[in-house]
Design a protein that fits this description.
With about 525 residues, the protein is an alpha/beta fold. It has helices at about 5-25, 30-35, 70-75, 90-100, 115-120, 130-135, 140-145, 150-155, 185-190, 200-210, 265-280, 290-300, 365-370, 375-385, 410-415, 425-430, 450-455, 470-495, 500-515, 515-535; strands spanning about 50-55, 80-90, 110, 165-170, 180, 225, 250-255, 255-260, 305-310, 340-345, 350-355, 390, 395-400, 425, 435, 460. It has a 6-stranded mixed beta sheet with strand order 2-1-3-11-4-14. Strands 5-9-6 form a 3-stranded mixed beta sheet. Strands 12-13-15 form a 3-stranded mixed beta sheet. Helix 3 links the parallel strand 1 (about 50-55) and strand 2.
Length: about 525
C-alpha cells in the first residue's frame, strides 16, 4: 500500500472511531436501547445481553469464573451474561498480541500493557472511558477521587482514559516483594546469629556449605543460597540495597532518571554476587532455573536442603515439615559502606486491566456492570477472597484461617479471580480487617508490622507508574530489547565468571553506542511531564 492509501485508510479508521464514540457518548446505541438499558438500579438491562471477555487466569482459580462466588454476586440481577475466554498466564502475552494484531476483538480485553492501551486507544481500537466513568461508575469515581494517583496512572497523555485499573492501595504494599529468608535452625547448628551485614551473610553461607546441616552424613549436598536470576520476586534484588541502589532498570534520584546498570553501585553489587558464586555459595542453577523449579527445590525432601533463598514468603512455598525453620524475612543487610536500603515501591496496580473495545455494542451496560467490582466490600472480596472474610456487627472483618486441605495461597484465591480482574482496594478497607498478628519475634510480608519495620530503610527511588505517549513507547521499544538483552547477558556472565572491572569501560561504551542516552531521555521526559501534570 502506498503512502496516500495508508493516509486514506487511517482517515477512514479515525472517522469510524469518531462515529462510534459519538454513539457511545450519546447515551447508548440502538442495541443498547433495544436491550432496555437503565442508568441506575437493577437490572442493568431489561433483556439479557452477552459480553465476551478475554484475559488470563490464576491456575489455583481455574477458568470457570461464572461459578466463582464473587462473580456470581457481581452478575446477580444485572441481566448481563459473561462469556469468558481465558488463557493460562504463560500464554496470555502471546494470545493478547494475536488478538490485537488480528483485529478479531472481544467486547472486553483484560490485563494489557500500558503501551498497548495507549496505542490501541490512539488507533480507535479501545474507546475512551472518562465520560462513561462519570455517568455510570459511582464506585470507581469515588475510588479515583480518593486516590488521584490512580487516575493519573490510567490517564493517557492525550487526556483520555482507555483502561480501568486493578489497584491495591494498602500502605504495606510499598514493601518490596523480594526479600531474603535464612534457615534459623541451620544458623543455630553453626553457632551463628541472624546476619545483619553482607559479610555476616557470607560467613553464614560458608558454614551452610561446609557443615552437614541436614544431618544425613553428607556435608556436600546442602545448597547455601538459591534464587532465580532476573526475577523480581525470587531474584537477587534484595542484595542491591546493601550497595546503595535498587534492582530496577531506571530509578529517580533528585528528579534525575538514572539507568541502574551503568552505575558504580550496580558494579559493586555484581562484584559481591560473584564473590559468593566463586566460593560455591550460590546455587549454579540460580542462573537458569525458573520460579517453579526454585519452589520445588526449597520444598522437596523431608528435611530442608536450602540454607537461604529469595521470595515474598517462606511459609507459603516450603514444605510444611520445615516451613517455620526460616523464621522471619530479613531487613536490609548493611553493606561494606553501611548502605542499608530497600525500595519504597509503587503500590500494587495494573493500569491496563480492563479495556472496552470498539466492537462492544453495550459500553454503558459494560461500565455499569464492571463498576460493581469497585464497590468497597466487593473489592475486598476480590482481593482477599470471600472465604477468608467474616463481617462482624461493628463493620470490621475477621480473617478465617485456611483449612488444612488448603494452602494459605489457595484459600485466598478461592472463589475470586484475584489479581486477574479489576478491583479498587483501599487502605480504609484494609484497616477494617482483623488480621492475624505476627508471633513475637516473627515478621511476615503480609503483615503491616513488616512494612513498618522497613519504613526507616525505604528510598522513594522507584520510577513512577505512568503512561507514555505513543511516540515515546515506540522509542522505548526501539532500545529496550537490545539493551536489556545485553545487560542481562553481561550481568549473568560477571556473576558466574567475574571480570566486571576489566570489562566495565567497554561495556559502557557499548551501551552508549546502543542509544542509552536517548533511551534514558525518553524516561526523563516522561517523568518530567508526569510531575508537571501532578502539580496542576
Amino acid at each position: 500500500m502506498n503512502m496516500r492509501n495508508k493516509r486514506a485508510g487511517s482517515m477512514a479508521a479515525v472517522l469510524s472511531a469518531i462515529l462510534l464514540l459519538a454513539g457511545c457518548s450519546g447515551g447508548g446505541d440502538s442495541k443498547g436501547s433495544s436491550a432496555g438499558f437503565h442508568e441506575t438500579g437493577l437490572p442493568i438491562v431489561d433483556k439479557p445481553i452477552s459480553l465476551t471477555i478475554a484475559g488470563t487466569y490464576d491456575e489455583r482459580t481455574g477458568t470457570n469464573w461464572n461459578e466463582l462466588e464473587t462473580m456470581k454476586e457481581i452478575n446477580e440481577g444485572t441481566n448481563v451474561q459473561i462469556k469468558w475466554n481465558l488463557s493460562p498466564g504463560t500464554d496470555w502475552a502471546t494470545k493478547r498480541n494475536l488478538i490485537i494484531a488480528s483485529g478479531d476483538l472481544p467486547d472486553v480485553l483484560l490485563e494489557l500493557s500500558s503501551s498497548q492501551v495507549v496505542t490501541g486507544g490512539a488507533d480507535g481500537m479501545f474507546i475512551p472511558l472518562e465520560d462513561l466513568i462519570g455517568k455510570y461508575a459511582p464506585n470507581l469515581t469515588d475510588f479515583l477521587n480518593k486516590y488521584p494517583e490512580v487516575r493519573q496512572a490510567i490517564t493517557a497523555p492525550d487526556g483520555h482514559i482507555y483502561s480501568l485499573p486493578m489497584a491495591n492501595m494498602s500502605e504495606y504494599k510499598h514493601a518490596d516483594g523480594n526479600t531474603l529468608w535464612v534457615n534459623k535452625e541451620w544458623l543455630k547448628k553453626a553457632g551463628l546469629e541472624m546476619p545483619e551485614t553482607t559479610e555476616e551473610l557470607t560467613k553464614a553461607l560458608e558454614a551452610f556449605k561446609t557443615m552437614d546441616m541436614d544431618g544425613d552424613g553428607n556435608p556436600n549436598n546442602e545448597i547455601p543460597l538459591t534464587g532465580v536470576f532476573g526475577d523480581s520476586q525470587y531474584g537477587f534484588g534484595y542484595l542491591f540495597g546493601s550497595f546503595n541502589t535498587i534492582d530496577e532498570t531506571f530509578i529517580v534520584q533528585d528528579d534525575k532518571v538514572v539507568f541502574v546498570r551503568a552505575t558504580e553501585e550496580f558494579k559493586n553489587t555484581v562484584k559481591y554476587l560473584h564473590s559468593l558464586y566463586e566460593k560455591g555459595l550460590i546455587d549454579p542453577d540460580s542462573m537458569t532455573q525458573n520460579s517453579t523449579q526454585l519452589i520445588a527445590k526449597v520444598s522437596s525432601g523431608k528435611k530442608a536442603s536450602v540454607g537461604a533463598f529469595f521470595a515474598w514468603s517462606a511459609d507459603q512455598i516450603t514444605n510444611a515439615d520445615y516451613r517455620w525453620d526460616y523464621g522471619s524475612p530479613m531487613i536490609p543487610l548493611a553493606g561494606p559502606d553501611g548502605s542499608q536500603i530497600t525500595p519504597r515501591n509503587n503500590l500494587q496496580m495494573t493500569p491496563g486491566m480492563f479495556v472496552i473495545t470498539k466492537v462492544n455494542p453495550y459500553p454503558e451496560a459494560t461500565m455499569r456492570w464492571v463498576d460493581r467490582a469497585y464497590e468497597p466490600e466487593m473489592s475486598m472480596k476480590l482481593r482477599e477472597g470471600p472465604n477468608r472474610l467474616k463481617k462482624l456487627a461493628d463493620g470490621t472483618y475477621d480473617t478465617i484461617p485456611n483449612p488444612d486441605n488448603y494452602t494459605a495461597g489457595e484459600w485466598k484465591v478461592k472463589e475470586t479471580p484475584y489479581n486477574d480482574f479489576v478491583y479498587g482496594f483501599s487502605q480504609e478497607m484494609r484497616d477494617k480487617q482483623i488480621l492475624p498478628k505476627a508471633e513475637p519475634g516473627q515478621l511476615d510480608p503480609d503483615f503491616d508490622e513488616w512494612y513498618e519495620a522497613l519504613v526507616p530503610y525505604m528510598k522513594p527511588w522507584v520510577y513512577p507508574n505512568i503512561m507514555f505517549t505513543d511516540a515515546q513507547y515506540k522509542s522505548i521499544e526501539q532500545y529496550q530489547t537490545d539493551i536489556k538483552t545485553y545487560t542481562d547477558k553481561m550481568e549473568a556472565q560477571w556473576i558466574a565468571k567475574g571480570g566486571i572491572d576489566e570489562e566495565w569501560n567497554t561495556y559502557l561504551e557499548t551501551l552508549n553506542k546502543m542509544g542509552l542516552s536517548d533511551y534514558t531521555k525518553v524516561y526523563q521526559d516522561g517523568y518530567d511531564t508526569n510531575k508537571a501534570n501532578l502539580a496542576k
